Structures are given as structure tokens and as C-alpha cells.
Amino acid sequence: MKNLAVKKSPVARALILALPLILASQYSFADEDNQPNVDEQRSVNSSVSKQVEVISIFGSHNQLETATGSAVVIGEAQLDLFEFDDIHRVLQSVPGVYVREEDGYGLRPNIGLRGATSERSSKIAIMEDGVLIAPAPYAAPAAYYFPMTSRMTQVEVFKGPSAIQYGPNTVGGAINMVSRGITENSAKQGGEGMVDLAYGQDNYQKAHGYYSQNITSENALTGKGQIGLLVEGIHLGSDGFKTLTDAEGNSHDTGFEKNEVLMKLNYVPSNSESNQFFQFKMGYGEEVSDETYLGLTDEDFAKDSNVRYLASQKDEMDWEHYQFQLSHYIELSDEISLFSQAYHREFDRDWDRFNSFNTNRSMQTILTSPDTGVNQLFMDVLRGDRDSFTETEALVFTLNDRRYYSKGIETKLTWDTTINAAEVVLDTGIRVHQDNVTRKHTATYYDMQSGVMVLNGTPSEVITQNDDTATAVAAFTNVNAVIDKFHITLGLRIEHIEGEAKDLLESTIKENSDTVFLPGAGLFYQLTTEHGLLVGVNKGYVPNSPGQESNIDPEESWNYEFGWRYSTDELQGEVIGFYNDYSNLKGACTFSSGCTQELDQEFNGGEVDVYGIEASTSISWQISDSLTVPFKVAYTYSQSEFQNSFDSTFSQWGSVEVGDELPYLPEQQLSIETGLQGEQWQVSLMFKYLSEMSEAAGSNTELEGLTTDELMQVDLSSWYQVNEQLKLYGKIDNITGEEVIVSRRPFGARPGKPTQIIVGIKYSF
User: Fold this and answer.
1) Are 107 and 101 in contact (CB under 8 A)?
2) 619: Cβ–Cβ under 8 A, 6 or more apart, which residues?
3) CA–CA gap between residue 554 and residue 141 (Å, rounded)
4) By CB neighbour count within 10 A (0-12 exposed, 13-18 middle, 19+ buried), where does 463 fall?
5) 8 Å CB contact between 310 and 382
6) Contacts for 25 with CB less than 8 Å, ≥ 6 apart
7) Contact, 558 vs 609, CB < 8 A?
8) Is it true that the peptide bond before 754 is cis, omega within 30 degrees of 0?
């Protein structure tokens, strides 16, 4: 990273790519005389299965049926069905989840749950394999890094009282993504793997593969047991669907390339009475994308929604991500187990992009009133139709360099027992965590000359340089009890957070701390074998970032839900009402939210009510011995109301009156999935409806009265299993070519992804 870290280190990359092979070479494949016996293999398989269970929110389908909160698990078969690379599209079938698109590919997801602001997914707990994945979950939780959805085998979405286990953010819920586990095969059976290749419009390309095997080991270092190995790599890329052409007819890139490689190494001792396992996980990811914050005027969007202004010709995001994770599981007795994880993540990013003109006039003002006075002159420069002539027409290009780390250790003790007639599972855990973000933003000044941005001689200047650190100790206790027809959840989370913000330009240090108690309770009552009722309540919380003024309160709410669930082998459904009573809602001023002043400052929004209904059902009709019609519906109705009037300089609020609604919270959204499935093939359609969303809550703000467009989108997918190893698939995203404004933030109208046709082939062995 420029001025912060050495990027693109060939040594680090070579080590990450080579280490799995180096480790594997230390152990030879066992012959038949060195195979584990049946009892040893059963112990190994039990331990491997346990690995998936302890990193998942839910370990079985039965837990979903009787969960005391709203829960959805998207399994591997569903993820493979539509082959979505975009987490936004994966989550569109989950009720109570709100997304705001930005780039069409989901590179920087904006996800919210039950009214929790979707801005950069910063107010929900997002995890991979049970570990928080935001670059700095406490100090700077905005999800500028997000793992590739294509390598996940399960996505879990949980809303309700048990969300307090996963904090610190508990206002909405948790999303946990489960990465591929090591195969359960024995050394004698050999390894397994897969190669997935796909190609599509806009030069879309995907290359994904993995190999996994268990190897019998017996040496002085590890003793007798099995070494499990997984190596996985994935490449995604596209030239982009937007056009950026200069006056000479030269096209500029608008696409992206992403790469990730992951290695997991297990050790499972044979004949271990404690049924324990060790796992080391290491990963590397990188992205280079020609992405911008600059959108279009509404008039230009109507002419061509996929064009980009020439002022964005130099925009580029460039990041690297490293992760290291060490896990250990042990059964201390028949009833008590202990699972611990130590983790360290680093994320280095440069986002070099056009930010503004050299004037106090904001980009939103220029783009929303492009034909007014001097705004028209600025627009001509943006488009490249006119050269910069005055000092105020200089283009301010910012080099936003940031470096993050997130590290900690967490451990969870589970006691699974029976007390009298009650089945009781007690989880209690503690996490010691620290994260940090170091920012250095530099402004460079360009002039537009014949459609080309050229340096104008004005010296570059550092406009932001700070170092924020958050240290947290969190503990939780969660009790799940089954007493006859009652399933009860009682939980408590305690967070103690200390923050330190260093402004290196002003030479100031601000410190803050907070301790909070977050209780939760839920109840599921089994009316019959098919019907059940649930009710729950929990305290919602989002901590302040380091450096906030003393008058800024954390985000806090009381969240309530109540509903009905129905489940048989053929049909599942539920209807849940929710009500989130915010005592204080917070807004955060970031570039991605459309702010240009007072960056990283947070704002009090006071009391807000968010309420609604979530409904879903799924059924599969067997119309013949070989034909099945699956059918799934998910619907969400949401309302929000500010309960107090105030004036705010936060760009998404302005002057708020009682009854104003939150921005980017759709009143209605609907997902319908159906198709036709044979023994070796399937064709599926997914329909998505999203009602318009307000761009701003109140008046006297730049996007006052504007809304996003109503969205109706259809995706098509199909696959054919040629034989046991070979599978062909194809899909069409946005089959109707819907072109709508999905957002006007950060600066200007932005489209979703247009129609894209993709074909692929998978080979498994």
C-alpha cells in the first residue's frame, strides 16, 4: 500500500501458494498396511464432521425447525443452483434482508437486517467460519473486504435473541459464511477435488478449483493420526458492463479481477478419547477493480445508464487481504466441549478516485441540478466535453490509502446435558480482540484537457492522516433448554470496548470507552408436530468508533419478534412480525454514504421505530416419478418512523420531522423461485421485486424527495449432469434487461448489472 505497506509482495504470495505443497510433501500416502482401523477412522470422521458444526450457527435442519429466532440457511445445493458470485443476489431470497447495490457485481456489499443501516454492511455481524471478517469490526466496520461467495458452501442468516453471541453489532443479526471443509475420506480412499470453469458476456471469466485429502501420519512431531489438507483457489474477472470512451475513441477499463487462495490443514489424533482436532487456516485474496464513486445525472442515466464520465478514467481500487486462523476442539467429557480460535487478518487497500472539484460545491449538488448556472460548466468538464479553465474546475483526485488489522482469540465452552426432564445446552465464551485502521488520504489536482486528466502542477497534499485502534473484551452466556414442548433461549452478552483515535495532522489523541450489557430471550412452543409459535426479545447495540465526541451515543434498541412456523417433510413456512424500538439510531459520515465533510464523524438520530412482517414458504411438488417442481416464496414488509424532529448535517438525514422514514429501507420486497427438476437436470427461475426506496430521510438535504426506482428482476439458471464427474451449467442474470436507478450514492445515479449470459463446466473427481 502506498506510504503504508509494501504491496504485491512476490515472496508472501509465493509462500502462501507453495506452503500447502510443502506441507503435503512431508507426509507420504499410506499403504494398506498403514491404514487406520475402523474405530480410528470413525473417530476421524466424527472429528471432521464436528468442525463444520462448531463454526456454524446451526448444525442441523431440526435446529432450524425449533429455533427461537428467525433463521435461514442457504446450503451448497442452493448456492450451486444459480452460481451467484454476488452476495446481494444470494441474499435476495432471505426475508428481512435489505441490500443497496452500488457497482452491479457486489464488490462492496451494502447489507442490512431489519432496519439496520445497509451502508457498507457496517451494522451487522458478518463472519466467515464464525470469525468476524470486517477489516476492523470495532474501529472501522465498513465491509470494504468481502470474501468470494463462490467458495462458500453455506450461508447462514440469523435474526433474533441468539444474535448476542456474535456481536458487537446486535441491532439486526448475524450472517455467517461457512467455507469448504476438508473431505471426510480416508487416506485409502484417496483425495477429492473439483474444477469449475465459466465464461460469459463482458469477458466474464471464472476459474475455481480445490483438492482435499486425508493423509495417515505417524512421526515424532504429530504422533499417530491423520493430516487433512485442503487447497482451494478461485479467479473471477470481467471487463465490466460500463463504457468509458475518450474523445479519441479509446476505451478505458471498467471491470475487475479478484483472486483468492485458501489452505486448511487438519490434524486429528487417532484413538483420542477427547475426540479432538486441530486446524490451521491460511488465505490470501486480492482485487484490482476500475471502480468509481461517480455516477450520472438522471438525464444522462435515461440516455445510457451504463456510460461513465471521463472524470472517472483514473479510478481504481486495489487491495490485498491476508488471513491466518488456528482452531482447536476438544471434548473434556461426554457432556462438555471446548472450541477455541486464534485469528489474525490484514487488509491493505488503495482506492484512487475522483472525489470532487476544487470548490465547496458538492458533487450531489452538481449532479442533481446539472443545468443550473455554473453547474453546467462543471458537468461539461466531468463529461470531457470542455477543458478545465479556472482553479475551481480542477479535478480533485484522492489517493485513499488504508491499512487494517484485526486479531484476537476466542473460546467457547459448551455443556450439553439433561437436567431432570430438560435437555440443556449451555454455551459460554469470551473473546479478546483488537483491531486498527490507519488512514492516509492524499489530494492530487488534475485538469481536464481534450478529454484526458493531466496533472495541473498544484502540489499534492495530505488531507487525512489518522490511526484508530479499538480493544475489546466480550463475554457471553447462552442457554438453550428443551422442556416438553417448550424451546427456551436465555442469553447475556457483555462488551467492554476502549478506543483510541490519533489525528496525525492535528497531533491530537482522543480516547473513549464503553461497557454494555446485552440480554436476550426467546421461546418456541411446539403446538403440534407441524406447528409452532415463537417470541423473542433482545437488546440491540452498535458501538461508537474511536474518536467520537462525548455527546455521540452508541446505537441502541430493543428488538422484538413473534411468529408462527410450519414444517413437514414437503412443506416449510413461517410468518414473523418484528419491531425494533431504537432509543438512538446513528449515522456515519463516509465517502460511500455521500459525505465529503466531517469524514468518519457519527451522528445521533434519536428514537426510531422499525417494524414489519417477514413471510416465507417452500414446497416441492412431485408431478411424476422423475419430475419435481420446487417453489419458494419470501416476502418482507417494512415500515420506519423517526420519533423526534431535529436538524442534522448528515447527508442522508437533513431536517427530520416526526414520521419521516429511513433511507434505503424498501416498504416491500418479494422473491419467488420455481422451476422444473429431473433426475439429471434442472431449470430454475428467480423473480425479485423491490419497491422504491427514499434516498434521504428529511428535507434541506441534497437528495430530498428522490427515490430509487422500483425493481423487477428475473434470473434464469439451468444445469445438466452428464455423468458422475461432469456437469454443465448456464445462467442468465437479469433476463429482462431491467435498467433502473438502484442508488444515487455516493455521487450520482447508478445502475444494477444488465443482462449477462454465462456458461460453465464442472469436473469433480
Assistant:
1) no
2) 570, 571, 572, 630, 631, 632
3) 14
4) middle
5) yes
6) none
7) no
8) no
Contacts of 219 (CB under 8 A, 6+ apart): none
Give the whole-angstrom CA distance, residue 609 versus residue 661. Answer: 9
CB 192 within 8 A of CB 765: yes
Scored b (16 or more CB within 10 A) or e, 403-419 reads bbbbebebebbbeeeee
Q: What is residue 220's predicted lDDT score, i.e. its pLDDT?
A: 56
Q: Half-sphere exposure (CA, 13 Å, Cβ side) for 275?
A: 19
Query: Where on the phi/psi map is residue 114: left (φ > 0), alpha (ψ -120 to 50), or beta?
Result: left
Rounded-to-integer distance, Cα 357 and Cα 272, Å: 67
CA-based angle 337:497:135, to the nearest 5? 80
Alpha-carbon gap, residue 468 to 484, rounded angstroms: 50
* pLDDT recorded at residue 164: 79
Q: Sign of dihedral through CA atoms 218, 220, 221, 223?
A: positive
Q: CATH 2.170.130.10 spans which residues of the chain?
A: 10-179
Low-confidence ranges of the chain (pLDDT < 70): 1-55, 57-63, 162, 186-189, 219-223, 272, 596-597
pLDDT digits (tens, 9 = 90+) for 69-117: 888 999 999 999 999 999 999 999 999 999 999 999 999 999 999 888 8
Q: Where are the beta strands (DSSP E) in 504-590?
A: 508-526, 531-542, 555-567, 571-584, 586-588
CB 145 within 8 A of CB 135: yes
Unique residue bearing C-alpha cell 470481467: 238
Specify whether the CB–CB gap between 315 and 253 falls below 8 A.
no
User: Which fold is adopted by the domain 10-179?
Assistant: Ferric Hydroxamate Uptake Protein; Chain A, domain 1 (2.170.130)
**Can the peptide bond before residue 137 be classed as cis, meaning omega within 30 degrees of 0?**
no
CA gap 35, 41 in Å, rounded: 9
Residues contacting residue 410 through CB under 8 Å, at least 6 positions apart: 131, 340, 341, 429, 430, 431, 432, 433
Helix (H, G, I), strand (E, B) or coil at 124: coil
Res 230: pLDDT: 97
pTM, whole model, 2 decimals?
Answer: 0.90
Count the Cβ atoms, other than its own, within 10 Å of residue 199. 14
Domain 192-764 class? Answer: mainly beta
For residue 153, give the C-alpha cell: 458452501
Q: Report how far residue 144's alpha carbon sits from residue 126's, in angstroms, rounded to the nearest whole number.
A: 12
- CA 505 vs CA 283, 398, 444, 459, 509: distances in Å: 35, 17, 17, 17, 11
Rounded CA-CA distance 363/595 in Å is 10
Closest CA relative to residue 305, chosen from 758, 734, 731:
734
The set of cell numbers assigned to 611 is 417494524
Tell me the C-alpha to C-alpha distance, in Å, between residue 1 and each of 69, 146, 350: 42, 18, 6
152-159/70-74 β-pairing: antiparallel
* Residue extent(s) of CATH 2.40.170.20 domains in the chain: 192-764
Q: Which residues contact 583 (CB under 8 A, 6 or more apart)?
A: 556, 557, 558, 607
For the range 129-133, what are the long-range contacts, defined as Cβ-Cβ under 8 Å and sequence gap of 24 or more?
129/55, 129/176, 129/177, 129/178, 129/179, 129/281, 129/325, 130/54, 130/55, 130/56, 130/176, 130/341, 131/325, 131/341, 131/343, 131/410, 132/406, 132/433, 133/177, 133/345
